[in-house]
């Protein structure tokens, strides 16, 4: 099989790529990497020295492709399927990329800052940084609640790369700064994401590992 995805089942950015793969039923080999295993970690770093998930390996083209957004764009270009996750029409495409960046930078990033703080010893935690990240999430929820009014999906009526980014970002963010009691449009949108078969599959596969999430 030409494509191999190096991933971890708890990684939000890995979830983002898995949704894209499942949307188009793209054939690939999943390769779970345990960074606590010295050999697996060394092999992964030899392939991608930055050491961040996910990484797509395309043996057919002899390429190593990192970063979730780049991977999804690459799949659409070289392994297209019935679901066009980045529209061909330029105006629609930039809107999808705009929303994709919003979820990565303003939902995933502050969520990860909060979670990272929980993983360090208590005497090394940074409450002010956590407070700032929580405020960023609350601001993002407010913006999203307004932006999602009247929309089925994040960038309009078609499921797209923006929704691939939104699903894991909102899933984990809701665990650290809940929005379901305060933001009606975000909540309704999140429920649609949870019902999407591609994301339901991702969560089902992650289920055995979710208890490890420090949330």
Strand residues, percent: 5-15%
Structural class: alpha+beta
In which order are the strands of the major sheet placed? 2-1-3-4
Question: How large is the radius of gyration?
Answer: 17 Å
The H/E string reads EHEHEEHHHHHH
Could you say which overall geometry the principal axes of the C-alpha atoms support?
globular
Poorly predicted sequence stretches spanning 5 or more consecutive residues: none
CATH architecture of the largest domain: Up-down Bundle
Overall number of strands: 4
First-residue to last-residue Cα separation: 36 Å
CATH class of the largest domain: Mainly Alpha
Count of domains: 2
Helix content: 55-70%
Mean pLDDT across all residues, rounded? 96
Number of helical segments? 8
CATH topology-level name of the largest domain: Glutathione S-transferase Yfyf (Class Pi), Chain A, domain 2
Biggest β-sheet description: 4 strands, mixed
């Amino acid at each position: 099989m030409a494509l191999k995805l190096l991933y971890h089942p708890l990684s939000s950015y890995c979830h983002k790529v898995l949704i894209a793969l499942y949307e188009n039923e793209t054939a690939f080999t999943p390769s779970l990497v345990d960074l606590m295993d010295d050999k697996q970690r060394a092999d992964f770093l030899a392939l991608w020295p930055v050491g961040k998930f996910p990484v797509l390996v395309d043996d057919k083209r002899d390429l190593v492709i990192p970063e979730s957004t780049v991977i999804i764009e690459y799949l659409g270009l070289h392994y297209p399927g019935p679901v066009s996750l980045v529209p061909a029409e330029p105006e629609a495409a930039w809107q999808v990329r705009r929303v994709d960046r919003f979820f990565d930078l303003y939902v995933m990033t502050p969520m990860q800052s909060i979670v990272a703080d929980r993983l360090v010893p208590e005497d090394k935690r940074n409450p002010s940084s956590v407070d700032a990240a929580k405020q960023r999430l609350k601001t993002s929820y407010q913006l999203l609640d307004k932006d999602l009014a009247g929309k089925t999906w994040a960038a309009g009526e078609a499921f797209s790369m923006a929704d691939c980014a939104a699903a894991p970002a909102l899933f984990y963010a809701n665990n650290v700064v809940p929005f379901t009691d305060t933001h009606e449009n975000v909540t309704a949108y999140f429920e649609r994401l949870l019902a999407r078969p591609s994301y339901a599959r991702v969560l089902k596969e992650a289920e055995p590992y979710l208890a490890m999430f420090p949330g």
